[in-house]
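Q&A log
Question type: sequence-to-structure
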Amino acid sequence: MRKGKLYKMNRDLKHKIWHDKRAQKIAKSKKKAKTTHRTISSEMVLRGTANPEHRIMRPACTKKVPENFSILNNPEETIDFFDDLSNEIKNRKIGTEIFIDSENVKDVTVDAIIYLISVMENIRPISIGVRHTIRGNLPKDDVIRKVYTESGFMSYVESRQGKLPNNTEKMQIVSGYNNDSKVVASVCEFVMDKLDKKKNEVQGLYKVLIELLSNVYHHAYNKKSNMLKKWYIYAEHIDECVRFVVTDTGEGIPNTVSKRMYEHVTRFLKIYTSDSDLICSALEGEFRSETKKSYRSNGLAGVKENVENGLFYNFTVMSSKGRCTINNIDKTIEKTNYKNRIEGTIFTFDIK
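Response status: OK
Response body:
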């Protein structure tokens, strides 16, 4: 065999070896990339805090979400979780990353999902100018994960998980800062469509929603508040009713109602006056709005009056450490108090 041919064969062999190694390297790289994508497909990061394409760092602080994630159905444990999370966000230091672990959630209601969004978006740090990163994951249970995705939760976080088609039985979470009559009108149209009602039949709902959204715009916030002011609203058609969750991130009813001197004195002397008592008094019309405006003097009392017209059921108000539910039969108010507090106010009710 001539030397030239031998040289060519050696060169071809070297090229083949190089080519095979390169192909193996590319294949390995693709496999690694595919595995990484599959691993973080349910990872999420709060929209506007960090780029989800960045390498996921080991979290400095992990907060485990309760298996029964519901303020309404599992209030003590869920409120304790939010109290802990709120304190962590408020007291965070520069560079601290918070990871919200929802992997093992086995039951969830949208009130908890909305409140999770409101805490992540609006809790203010004690130290001015501190930037934060909040990451998390979705539940591994497919049914529970679907509650998150169909509620509109994914609109408030960055994720590599593809968006699913909207569920026409659910009006996804909408948020805002001002009293938005267009949003209220669209919500009423949703109820009219799902429950086959006429416009005059949902006037009470329109008035109540306008009042609840006005709470944020007019008086539900001051400079000492732990949260920036914002409202969130969600509606879902279930059987023969439409279920609502409305949240505002203001200071909360017990701190914003105009208290009589008696309440000021008793609280100063630590004589027991509960948050549920103050919420109940506001619903009964004993206190005027903090704004002292004559055109807003009805406040929550006006809400209660509309709630009792037969359109509303299971109307519940939660604020600070108190909870009040209006009984549809005898119009009495059931009061409950909790160890820890929530920021702002949560309203839940059904329309039939």
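Response note: The chain has ten helices and twelve strands.
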